[in-house]
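[job 4471] stage=fold_predict status=RUNNING
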Amino acid sequence: MESRLAIDARASGLMTLLCLIWGLQQVALKAFGGDISPLLQIGLRSGIAAALVALLMRWQREGFGWRQWRPGLLAAALFATEYLLVGQALRCTSASHTVVFLYTAPIFAALGLHLRLPAERLSRLQWAGVAMAFGGVALAFLGPGAAARGGTDASLAGDAMALGGGACWGATTVTIRLSSLSSSAPTTTLLWQLLGAFVLLVPASWLLGEFSIRPSAQAWLALGFQALVVSFASFLAWFWLLRNYLASRLGIFSFMTPIFGVIFGALLLHEPLSRRFLAGAALMFAGILVVSLHRMLGGIGARLARG
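[job 4471] inference complete, writing structure tokens
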């Protein structure tokens, strides 16, 4: 029997707030990049949040889960790679483009699960959604004349890195789903990922020449927002929602995140939005919705067919 609750006003309000925060994070990383590089922000925020999660786990007397070190290390490496690509993407392309291409992750996760789990085989409707999503990607930056219409070679490379970040996010989802991490406490899985990002990204920022902080109120404000609000509070709130409400319903709300990201990028960073990019993004997310909500859409189609 399903013990989780249907979405109510409290869950709707909290999910909307979380999507606002997640949509703002890429914009904030880029906005304060002059004071502290995006890659170093991500590495340091992960270390601070990891310490806070570890303290919370100790207070709740939760075990860390050292026996799950193999999937834990793989999830940590994929998470760190995702944000390495995000940090580099933000140096080359807009925050709006970064958040949109990053949120192709559900498509990559669906393809990975299709290959590994018989119960997750894609239906014809879902394959149509996959085709729509990748058609949107092509329209946004791979089509003829894309560089001339919307950006330089560097911006296209940034878009490609953000898309690679989405692929790593999807691979992380598949890794967790197919391993013992799927039955672990959410704090355990989060801690593995945060530790991986801290251990790998702080040295990476030094190797890439991005290990610099210009002490200022803006730098500490940016780091505090990323560590306390994004990496700690918002993820714990998300896990609390997953424990208490229907995950399929919560997932629908998450599609607001890239929309907020595009809006914040345009309003706060004055980023230009070409018609081609907006059309591609719309097609991309239509495809993701079809893949994610195929059962609901199939049921609606069947009822309409019956008249």
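[job 4471] summary: Confidence is low (pLDDT under 50) at residues 299-307.
[job 4471] exit 0
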